[in-house]
Input
Amino acid sequence: MKMILPIKILLFIILAYFVYSFAIYNQVMHTEVARKSISPLAVKGKDVFQKFNCISCHQIYGLGGYIGPDLTNTISEKGEAYAEAFLRNGSLRMPNFNLNDTQVEALIEMLKAVDSSGSFPAKDFDVSWYGTIQKKEKE
Ligand code: HEC
Output
């Protein structure tokens, strides 16, 4: 009979684990970002981005190399034409990769998708009591 209490405690811990997991995964599945699908052209852009190893110099969502700027919000902050100028010509510090029209188009589409799915630096986030982050509601 004395063993009942430890068993109850163990069951409580196991139950708490499942409730906690459910809360976390339920939260992640319902964020705006998780539901947004990415267009095939943007996926192609990702392939071009990987092929030319853009991440060696640039960051996306703050991760990557540090020779060039973070590209997460280039489209909304500086515009498509501005980004396209760099993709087509390079600059003194960025090489010209001689990309063709399709590759440039795909890269712009990928940068748009990245832009719409995050911001860098990540400000305006609330941390919930169970450890996930949530974008602050716009006032
Ligand atoms: C050798 C390092 C290097 C590589 C590789 C590189 N870039 Fe850059 N990129 C730079 C630098 C440095 C700048 C800033 C240039 C300047 O201001 O003159 C830049 C600027 C840019 C900009 C303008 C961003 C802004 O906010 O000003 C875009 C867009 C861009 N690069 C996209 C790309 C893409 C896409 C690739 C891959 C095809 C790539 N870069 C590969 C170094 C690189």
Notes: The first helix runs from residue 4 to 29.
